[in-house]
Amino acid sequence: MGSVRLTKRIIRSKILLRLNSQKEEDREAKSRIIKNKLFRSKIFKKAKKILFYVSFEGEVNTEGMIKKALKLGKIIAVPVCTKNRMIKPCLLKENAKLIRGPYGTREPVGQRCLDSKSIDLVIVPGLAFDAWGNRLGRGKGYYDRFLKRLPDTATSIGLAFSFQILPGIPTTKHDVAVNRVVSA
């Protein structure tokens, strides 16, 4: 277990460095390609209630995706992290005001929650993924615990830049893979 933790820490630091050093115009161009791939997918077209993450620190930009999904009539929720290390899916309306949450992520003001059992699709962030959908997050386990609580009918899709796709990700019994990864 100790070597897995060490390896995860090394991967995290290297990927965070790449994310933060990526040119903003490259990030935006690749994010648009990822958005187009996601929105063309049958899974996305069919989904009515979607949990998106609000991007930060060089991640695939989801703001344009969220705006377009709202315009398409999708019900959108974003994660709000609680003190007991759980994710609450909170509804996000068009032009909603966002504030910084405890971990630097942006969260909606006046949170109205959505039942996680009603979510069709979860768009999952990650620092790294592999071909089997194994995911390396930021190390707190929020998404792993959340994904375990979802019904079997919900699909999870990770968004990543091509340099975030690795040959393999070290995993433990607590890690939960995503169903699919969309990358550019």
Plain-language structure description:
The protein has one domain (about 1-184): Rossmann fold (3-Layer(aba) Sandwich), CATH 3.40.50.10420. It is built from five helices and ten strands; from the N terminus they run H-H-H-E-H-E-E-E-E-E-E-E-H-E-E. It has helices spanning about 1-20, 25-40, 40-45, 65-70, 140-150; strands at about 50, 75-80, 85-90, 100, 105-110, 120-125, 130, 135, 155-160, 180-184. Strands 3-2-1-6-9-10 form a six-stranded mixed beta sheet. The longest helix has 20 residues, at about 1-20. The model has no long low-confidence stretch (mean pLDDT about 95).
Question: Main attributes?
Answer:
184 residues, alpha/beta, Rossmann fold, two-stranded antiparallel ribbon, 5 helices, 21% strand, globular
Give a brief outline of the structure.
This protein is α/β, with parallel strands linked by helices. The chain has helices spanning 2-21, 24-40, 42-46, 63-71, 142-149; strands at residues 49-51, 75-81, 87-91, 98-100, 106-108, 121-124, 128-129, 135-136, 155-160, 180-183.
